[in-house]
Amino acid sequence: MKNQMSTVWAILVSFLFIHGFTAEPAINNRYKVLRVLPRNEEQLILLQDIIHKRKNIDVWRAPAAVNSTVDLNLSPSSFEYIIAELEANDIYNEVLIEDVQKAIYNQQKNEGSKISVMEGDDFDYGNYHTLKEINNWIQEMATKYKTITTIFKITNTYEGRPLLGLKILNHYKSDPEMKTLLDMFDWYIVPVVNPDGYEYTWSNANRRMWRKTRSKHGRCIGVDPNRNWDMEWCKSGASIDPCSDIYCGPFAFSEVEVKGVADYIMKQTKNITGFLDFHSYSQFWMTPWGYTERLPTDFKRQDEGAMAACEALRRVHGTKYEHGSIANIIYKASGSSADWAYAKARIKYSYGVELRDTGKYGFLLPADQIIPSGQETLKGIVAIAKYIYNQK
Question: How distant, in Å, are the alpha carbons of 13, 280, 364, 387 from that of 93?
Fold first, then answer.
């Protein structure tokens, strides 16, 4: 019975965790990351207004609620301006990253341990990799494990790169836990959903913080892929400004990458019972809705799955994740993948996951945290897969 079900049930896992600054700041001018904590409604509104007026601020973590931290990547001039405004209004702040360029350099020094997680596999899982290296890994996995894996192509990107994924079938027997998972589901894994943006981050150190796609819409480049889905598109927590790093695009599904993934899902929609979209950072395991603080009909079951994932994850290295709906736990964000997957593709168990950490490194997580982050995340995925399976 399990093997029959696994041909029907599937979980799609995608990774969309590139963050950046659309105006390409000169990072070598000692940008700093500043954490701010608005302690009342007046301070929150003031902080939102300050950020809105100073348009060249790179917002890592937006001002969403009272007593919710805000992280800003600031040029020297913006840092002086913001500090003066904060101190004048008695708003708490601290510097999280003193020198962003140094943090980027440290991340690119190949700090990770040379660790292979599969016997005979020489891929270095303890370091960050270029798009070419990731695509080569996909090819190598499909060749090495040709009886259980197949490559699928979703579409070509705006700049003509293939957007590839790896489907893992239900015949893997060497690890009991993995065998159980693959008896339950087929797995569709898309390592990089924004290939053009990801490739761009490797082209120059000053471009490391790029977040958006690379399409051209007006005077600035790119669209935030997780504001471009056709679900309450651009209603809240998104911007119509093409230069904003949360630009929703000129219309829903304007981005070929986002539309390609959506079309692929809709072709498989009767087969997909779980959807996980991984981003960074904040350590959240989140459920719909993103566009409103109102909770969906299935929230209780969705949140129970998220709770199971967080607990399983915590038991590995003690890392604590929070769980809840996107709008209530982090901020409102319309046009998100999790909202669309739940509402339009009818995938009941749809999640957006923000990976390590909570701000010490932010989007510049050191390479030596890749392996432990992967280990704990895998346990979270295992737990949520078991939870979903047991609901059927």
Answer: 36, 22, 20, 40
Same domain for 208 and 134 = yes
- State the pLDDT at residue 271: 79
199, 232, 257, 354: which is the annotated catalytic residue?
354
335 contacts: CB under 8 Å, gap ≥ 6: 226, 227, 228, 229, 230, 231, 232, 233, 234, 235, 238, 248, 252, 291
Same domain as 74, residue 140: no
Do 232 and 261 lie in a common domain? yes
- Quick: pLDDT tens for 5-62: 333 356 677 665 444 433 344 445 689 999 999 999 999 999 999 888 877 788 999 8
Q: Are residues 63 and 185 in the same domain?
A: no
Contact by Cβ (8 Å): 331, 319: no
Q: Give the model confidence (pLDDT) of 288-335 as tens digits.
A: 999 999 999 999 999 999 999 999 999 999 999 999 999 999 989 999
Pick from 46, 63, 98: which residue ends a domain?
98
Residue 37 shares a structural domain with residue 177: no
Examine the domain organization and report whether 329 and 293 are in the same domain: yes
Residue 220 lies in a domain: yes
Claim to verify: residue 129 and residue 218 sit in the same structural domain: yes
* Domain count along the chain: 2
Question: What SS3 state is found at 356?
Answer: coil
How far is it, in rounded angstroms, from Cα 181 to Cα 383? Answer: 10
79 part of a folded domain: yes
The owner of tokens 């207004």 is 49
DSSP three-state, residue 305:
helix
Phi, psi of 89 (to 5 degrees): -115, 15
85-98 pLDDT per residue, tens: 999 999 999 999 99
Six-digit token string for 66: 């009272």
Cβ–Cβ < 8 Å for 71, 61? yes
Measured distance CA(249)–CA(226) in Å, rounded: 10
Residue 92: what pLDDT? 96
45: helix, coil or strand? helix
For the entire predicted model, the pTM comes to 0.89
Length of the chain: 392
Cα–Cα distances in angstroms (integers) from residue 357 to residues 115, 174, 279, in the given order: 21, 32, 11
Domain end position, chosen among 73, 98, 123: 98
Percentage above 90 pLDDT, the chain: 71
354 is catalytic: yes
